Amino acid sequence: MKTNIFIPEKINAGFQNRTDTYTKKLAYVIYFDQKGVLRKESSWNGWRDKSIDNVIHDNIPTSGFVLNKKAGGYSTGWNHRQTYVRVYDPRDFEFEISISNLLYILENTNSIKGKGLEGDFVYGFDGKDLLLIPTSSPDYIEISQFNKILHEKNYVKSKELVIGGTYKSKDNTEYIYMGRFDLKDTKSERVEVKNGNGNYGRTYNYVNHNVNKGKYYFFTTGVREGYDGNKYLSMLTLKSLGDKFIETTSTECVDNYAELFEYLERSTDYSHYDKTKDEHVPFTLDEFKEFVSEKKLDSYSYNRRFTLRTSGYNKEEIHFNNDKKEYYKQGTYISNKGYEEFPIGDIEQVFNKFEPIYKNEYLENGKLYRRVTSW
User: Fold this and answer.
1) Do 108 and 224 fall into the same domain?
2) Which residue in 34, 191, 248, 319 is a FRET match for 129, CA 20 to 30 A apart?
C-alpha cells in the first residue's frame, strides 16, 4: 500500500435507504482534509438522501467491522458497475470497499465467522478512493507518521530552505531544493499571415515568444529519461511554497548536487531554447547502429521502417526485410504485387549511402538541451 494515504481526523457519512443492506441504509463516506475542508462534498450531496441526517465521526482506530456481501460486478448496456464489498461499521451503517482493498485487509488480518474482521481499523483516502486500513498492517505505522506530520501543519517556509537540502511534500514525495531562479517559459500567439475578405480564407501561424516569469523556487526529484532517449531533470517550480512541504528531511546538501545542477542548466525552465544554435552532426557508424537497433525492427511483424535525416530538410524512409535481413527503399504500389522494393543492403550500406545526421539543440546559455533524431 502507498504511504501517502491520507487518514483524516474526522469522517462524514451521508446515507441512502437500501433494503438490501443489514442496516437498511448505505453510506457514502467522505472526509475533512487537514485544513478542515470537506472534500468530495458536491458528489456526496448529489448522492445522499438529504432527508436522512448525516453523521460525523472521529476517525480513530475502531473494531467490530464485518464483511457483509458483494455488490456490483454487472453491466447493463452503458451502465457498468464495478465489484465492491459491503462492510458493516459498528457505528451502525454499511459502506463499500474495493476488491483490492479487501485483499489487502485479508493479507494483514483475519475475518472470523460470526465475529467479523479482527483488530482495529481506520478510514483512509487514496485521492478520491476510500480505503479501510487495518492498524495491524506494517504500512500503518509509516502512513500514521506521515499523517501526523501532515496534521501538525508545520509547513516548510522559504527562509528555511537550504541549497541541496531535501524536503518532503504533502503527497509524501521527497524533493531536492536547487535554488531560486528566473523561470523561463514560452507564450504562443496566433498571427495572421495572409489577409482575405472577412474571416474567410485567412491564414494564421502560431508564433512562440520567450517569457521570463520571474523568480521561482526550483526543486527536483532527480534525473529521468525522456521518451526521446535524452535525460532530463524532473522539475517542480513554485512561485511560493504555501503548504507544499510538510517536513525538512535533511539540510545536508546531497552528494550529487553538482551533477543535478548541470542538468538544471540544460533545462528550458532555466534557459530558453535558441533555434539559431541548432547543430547538424553526422552519425558515426557505431552511433547509427545503436540508433537503428533501438527501433527493434526484427521484433515486429509489420511496420518495419524508420526515418533518417540526410540534411536539415531532407529525410529518407528506410524499410527492413526481416526474411532477407536487409534494408530497402519502398517504391510505388503495384496491383496484385504489392509495393516495389529497392534493396540497399546491410546497415553499413545504408550508412554509407545516406550519410545520416542528427541535430543538437542548444539553449541561450550555450548548454546542450537535447539530441534530436527526428524533426
Assistant:
1) no
2) 248
3-state secondary structure labels for all residues of the chain: CCCCCECCCEEEEEEEECCCCCCCEEEEEEEECCCCCEECHHHHHHHCCCCCCCEEEECCCECCCEEEEEECCEEECCEEECCEEEEEECCCEEEEEEHHHHHHHHHHCCEECCCEECCCEEEEEECCEEEEEECCCHHHHHHHHHHHHHHHCCCCCHHHCCCCCEEEECCCCEEEEEEEEEEEEEEEEEEEEECCCCCCCCEEEEEEEEEEEEEEEEEEEEEEECCCCCEEEEEEEECCCCCCEEEEEECCCCCCHHHHHHHHHCCCCCCCEEEEEEEEEECCHHHHHHHHHCCCHHHCCCCCEEEEECCCCCEEEEEEECCCCEEEEEEEEECCCEEEEEEEECHHHHHHHHCCEEEEEEECCCCEEEEECCC
Asked whether residue 178 falls in the same domain as residue 249, the answer is yes
pLDDT in tens, 103-151: 999 999 999 887 899 999 999 999 889 999 999 999 999 999 999 988 8
Task: Mean pLDDT check: name the lowest of 39-48, 116-125, 187-196, 262-271.
Answer: 187-196
**Whether residues 69 and 142 fall in one domain:** yes
- For residues 5-22, give the mean pLDDT: 93
In a domain, 111, yes or no: yes
Give domain status of residue 3, yes or no.
no
Give the dihedral of Cα atoms 121, 126, 127, 131; nearest 10 deg: -40
Answer whether residue 58 is part of any domain.
yes
Domain boundary among the residues 119, 147, 175 is at 147
Average pLDDT over residues 337-345: 92
pLDDT tens-digit profile of 138-171? 999 999 999 998 888 899 999 999 999 999 999 9
Residue 138: which domain range?
10-147
How many structural domains compose the chain? 3
Q: Of 215, 242, 270, which closes a domain?
A: 270
